[in-house]
């Protein structure tokens, strides 16, 4: 508890900085102001020497709130249309290896990462799982974590910005609206119970999946039509944005700019690949192309579901696809790594010019925590 009390001023300051950034973005009329404003404000404060921190418990709490929101997107009508999701979900089986291969080639040949570092950094999802596997397999944890963190940051920033530039104007969401206290209490209890059960069952991304499943069950059964107020969604986005910004604490601006340059090119490749898949599937199924882009682009389950909510897209569709993508990555990556070592160039010895320092500015240190706020990242990425 003493440690928690010492950290409290830093947590309050982090959230205050995030809130300030969100308000600035809102006043400027920028897209996704609560999420993006908090991200950039806390990241900028980190460059000035501020060590931002969002406790894992608080991050899990707001992820649970977002899970309840997403679960409310499931309805009997949408379940009846699940058959229309089949082509797009099957498309993930092609998209995941294509995205991983494209990312690997870029990071290996153009950025100069070692083979195994590029392998785990290129995986389109599973932030925590890829960092843990990278450490176990002798890769540079910091380099892998930084690439994943920059990817999420850029995708979450670019996706809603491009959508707004294309003319997508989501309807304003009332901050409070007509909220029934009884319905809110029911959702809160069900969400907490769902999170507890999912955690006990060791479900990946339990903080999201448990509340989402509980909320979906209540809505599908017709027990409630309640949804948390928009104000709660805004606050959840600010906390989530602050936690993303805190991942970059301790980085120098020069290192961050190097990462940003490499990450921008990689993100552009990801968007090009995702756009090709989205347009092909949209032409074949009639599903909205923008919704498919948001559902496929590897920007993190929670983050992209939040983008879907803000853009008034189907959050259930988006979250389902991202969860399946991460399941594919986490399931297949260990086997793919073994095959890559056996038949690929995984046995090659890196030269000094292709060390992880090319991107992270330091050598491997297994005891060094990856950039972050110490929170749970299971299901991110």
Task: Please describe what this structure looks like.
Helices cover 70% and strands 0% of the residues. The chain is an all-alpha fold.
* Topology-level CATH name: Na+/H+ antiporter like fold
Q: What is the number of helical segments per DSSP (H or I, 4+ residues)?
A: 16
**Portion of residues in helices?**
over 70%
Tell me the name of the CATH class. Answer: Mainly Alpha
Overall pLDDT: 80
Q: Determine the strand fraction and express it as a percent band.
A: under 5%
CATH architecture: Up-down Bundle
Q: Estimate the global geometry from the Cα principal axes.
A: globular
Order of helices and strands: HHHHHHHHHHHHHHHH
Q: Based on DSSP secondary structure assignment, what is the total number of beta strands?
A: 0
Keywords:
single chain; 381 residues; mainly alpha; Na+/H+ antiporter like fold; 16 helices; globular; disordered C terminus
